[in-house]
Write a structure and sequence with these properties.
There is one protein chain. This protein has 421 residues and is an alpha/beta fold. The chain is 31% helix and 24% strand. The chain contains 14 helices and 24 strands. Strands 22-23-1-24 form a 4-stranded mixed sheet, covered by helices on one side. Helix 6 links the parallel strand 10 and strand 11. Helix 4 runs parallel beside helix 6. It is elongated, with a radius of gyration of 22 Å. It binds uridine-diphosphate-N-acetylglucosamine (UD1). Uridine-diphosphate-N-acetylglucosamine binds next to helix 1, helix 5 and helix 6.
């Protein structure tokens, strides 16, 4: 069944919204269960399609699963296949996260290459080069990465040419079971990478440098790990999206179940735009701005401004008092929301990786299409302030990463409905 969201604009928001667990933490944590010699329960799991897809992939490999509410228990001791097939991998690029753990555990694996992705080429060359440095023999056969390391992976020094989040996670997991010490240089510092390291350390892996760009990991010489239950950290991108909803409607709303420190680059940017906050231990309240000021944004790796918030801020900048410049530095094609925002009356000019966003825009409703996960949330934000009723189609993109989106927005007072196409 296909659905669209119907959003009537012009409504102020109020109240509070509870933030779900982080999709981008849940995914590597699910993949890490392949390294475990026991069953693990992951709690605060977001109920989103990407998480279901990776769980399905683990089940396909032979894992057993049970769920209760937002907790999922995974037992990978029953895994008897090391082949992640195309049918599932094509649905979600992050399936590549099984490559490192499968190879480290079984000494061989076949993982379908993730297909081209809407937001750019997104290669996996850095994942593969790192595994080769750890002694793996890798071939690409009929769309599959076929990897072998019959004697086990060996510790190595790896300098990443670029900071890659899932690449870092893949190699951290592989190194945890490798023979000897792996030194990783230029690693991602995202909170989701840190949580993965913490979980592995709890399981007895010695990792130095967690939270910095350089890690030193002592492998277990192939012995599976004694992994403990874990609670997934809050989703900083979902949190940032709701803060932007408060900002674009210039309303006072509170987000709860968050780690404010993980949101610093986002709250800092919103402060520059004129918003103020009440920050609690696990909550943030955004306060309306006198006027919304234009700002310049450049996306970068954590702790910089996240590319996953670029589209939402672009929607917000249409309501600023002047022109804003947004530079996308991570993905070459992450501007697909622009043409849809323009259809709603936005004044946005693109040149290379830079967008010039005119402010003071009266947005008007339209039929628009979601093109990728975060682009879709920008359209919802725009619809909240547009004149009339906007229909956002192809919302399966949103369901990949936002739990109960229309329920949460409705609770904040938005006029939003999920309807059948
Ligand atoms: C992860 C996040 C995604 C976020 C992105 C950047 C997950 C599941 N997804 O994606 O939400 O937008 O980080 O913060 O955590 N690159 C290469 N070769 C590689 C790998 C990456 O050239 O082998 C390049 C990419 O094309 C991109 C940059 O490195 O330009 C960063 O990509 P990367 O951090 O790997 O993104 P993902 O891990 O796929």
């Amino acid at each position: 069944m296909l659905y669209y969201l119907s959003i009537k604009g012009g409504q102020k928001l109020k109240g509070s919204v509870s933030i779900s667990g982080a999709k981008n933490s849940a995914l590597p944590l699910l993949a890490s269960t392949l390294l475990s010699k026991n069953k693990i329960t992951l709690s605060n799991m977001p109920n989103v399609v990407d998480v279901k897809t990776l769980t399905k992939l683990l089940e396909n490999l032979g894992a057993t699963k049970s769920s209760e509410g937002n907790s999922v228990s995974i037992d990978t001791t029953t895994v008897d296949s090391a082949c992640a097939n195309y049918d599932i991998v094509r649905k979600m690029r992050a399936s590549i996260l099984t490559l490192g753990p499968l190879l480290a555990r079984f000494g061989h694996c076949e993982v379908s290459m993730p297909g081209g992705c809407a937001i750019g080429q997104r290669p996996i060359d850095l994942h593969l080069k790192a595994l080769e440095l750890m002694g793996a023999k890798i071939e690409l056969k009929q769309g599959y990465v076929v990897a072998k390391a019959p004697e086990g992976l060996k510790g190595a020094t790896i300098i990443f040419d670029k900071v890659t989040v899932t690449g870092s996670e893949n190699i951290i997991m592989a190194a945890s079971l490798a023979n000897g010490v792996t030194k990783l240089v230029n690693i991602a510092k995202e909170p989701e990478v840190v949580q993965l390291c913490e979980v592995l350390m709890e399981a007895g892996v010695s990792i130095e440098g967690v939270g910095t760009a350089n890690l030193s990991i002592v492998g277990s010489y192939g012995e599976l790990l004694d992994m403990k239950d874990v609670k997934v950290i809050p989703d900083r991108i979902e949190a940032g999206t709701y803060l932007c909803a408060g900002a674009i409607t210039n309303s006072k709303i509170t987000i709860t179940n968050v780690i404010p420190k993980h949101l610093e680059s986002i709250t800092l940017k919103l402060r520059q735009m004129g918003f103020d906050f009440e920050i609690g231990e696990n909550s943030i309240t955004i306060l309306p701005a006198g006027k919304i000021k234009a700002c310049d944004i450049e996306t970068s790796e954590y702790p910089g401004f996240p590319t996953d918030m670029q589209a939402q801020f672009m929607a917000l900048c249409t309501q600023a008092n002047d022109t804003s410049i947004i530079d996308e530095r991570l993905f070459e094609n992450r501007f697909m929301h622009v043409s849809e925002l323009v259809r709603m009356g936005a004044n946005i000019k693109l040149k290379g990786h830079s967008a010039t966003v005119g402010g003071n825009t009266d947005l008007i409703s339209a039929d628009v299409m979601a093109t990728d996960l975060r682009a879709s949330s920008a359209l919802i934000l725009a619809a909240l302030v547009a004149k009339g009723t906007t229909k956002v189609h192809r919302i399966y993109h949103l369901d990949r990463g936002y739990e109960n989106l229309e329920g949460k927005f409705s609770a904040l007072g938005a006029n939003i409905e999920r309807l059948e196409e």
